[in-house]
């Protein structure tokens, strides 16, 4: 009989290797990422930024299969609070990622809201607070996206609350959940981002368990977090300052998070993501190995 614990599938992602962009000279080459993530003991990965890994399904399938890796999800950034006016541009990008994810056997599409300030420069791109009309557009367009992704590609949309976006705090996450159809829209709970924005992951899982469709496992350094929040530092520079840290040295504690997720008794991916762009290319692998060992000690 399958137990709850065995229904948590642990993976990692290009993000844990310092990869934020399709092509950047400061990032590790994609073959090295695949070699090292497999060598560290992970069997599931995400696509990362579209274009980092091969976008030809046959080639990507071959490259992952030879390393005994499988793909859990693709990722897209969207500005759906802007309403129907951005639909065509959004769908053009989403359909590329979703088609690749479907072709290589993934079942999820992680949707991240667009940033209200530039994650490198800190330049204000728009108001950090949505109007009532923008909240309605965000909810309706996310439902539309989830429906289209499901109907065309058979993928489940999981929306990722994220620092420096409009879906960030406990209040805004709850508002988003209450505004969207639970049959269409689930959450990708990123434990690090939620803590970064003041949220309690265990409480969220216990309160909205039926909406948790996917996990990103991440921790923040509370001392660095206090500094960057006090200074109003944008997310990108905060990462460069080490706000995201190696488990189990930060918050939230991952053992209670995994226990709460296991109590849901549903299949969940739990993908390790430690933001550290940019980083020395030799830094990620030892961290990934230690993190995998730590998660095994937590029963995952």
Automatic annotation (TrEMBL):
EC number in record: 4.2.1.44
Domain of life: Bacteria
Enzyme class at the top of the EC tree: lyase
Keyword Cytoplasm: no
Residue intervals of the Xylose isomerase-like TIM barrel domain: 34-297
Keywords from the UniProt entry: Lyase
Entry keyword annotation includes Lyase: yes
GO molecular function: myo-inosose-2 dehydratase activity
Family annotation (InterPro entries): IolE/XylAMocC-like, Xyl_isomerase-like_sf, Xyl_isomerase-like_TIM-brl
Pfam families per the UniProt record, alphabetical: AP_endonuc_2
Annotated protein name in UniProt: Inosose dehydratase
């Amino acid at each position: 009989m399958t137990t709850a614990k065995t229904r948590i599938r642990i993976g990692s992602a290009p993000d844990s290797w310092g990869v934020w962009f399709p092509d950047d000279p400061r990032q590790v080459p994609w073959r090295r990422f695949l070699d090292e993530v497999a060598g560290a003991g992970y069997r599931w990965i995400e696509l990362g930024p579209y274009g980092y890994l091969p976008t030809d399904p046959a080639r990507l399938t071959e490259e992952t299969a030879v390393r005994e890796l499988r793909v859990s999800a693709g990722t897209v950034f969207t500005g759906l609070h802007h309403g129907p006016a951005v639909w065509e541009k959004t769908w053009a990008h989403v359909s590329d990622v979703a088609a690749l994810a479907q072709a290589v056997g993934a079942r999820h599409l992680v949707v991240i809201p667009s940033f209200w300030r530039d994650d490198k420069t800190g330049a204000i791109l728009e108001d950090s607070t949505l109007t009532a009309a923008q909240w309605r557009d965000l909810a309706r367009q996310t439902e539309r996206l989830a429906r289209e992704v499901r109907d065309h590609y058979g993928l489940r949309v999981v929306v990722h609350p994220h620092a420096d976006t409009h879906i960030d705090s406990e209040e805004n996450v709850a508002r988003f959940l209450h505004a969207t159809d639970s049959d269409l829209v689930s959450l990708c709970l990123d434990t690090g981002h939620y803590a970064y924005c003041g949220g309690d992951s265990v409480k969220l899982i216990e309160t909205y368990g039926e909406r948790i469709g996917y996990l990103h496992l991440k921790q923040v350094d509370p001392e660095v977090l206090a500094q960057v929040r006090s200074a109003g530092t944008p997310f990108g520079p905060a990462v460069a300052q080490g706000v995201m840290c190696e488990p189990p040295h930060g918050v939230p504690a991952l053992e209670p998070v995994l226990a709460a997720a296991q109590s849901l008794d549903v299949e969940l991916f739990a993908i390790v993501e430690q933001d550290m762009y940019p980083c020395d290319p030799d830094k990620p692998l030892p961290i990934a190995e230690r993190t995998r060992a730590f998660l095994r000690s937590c029963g995952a």
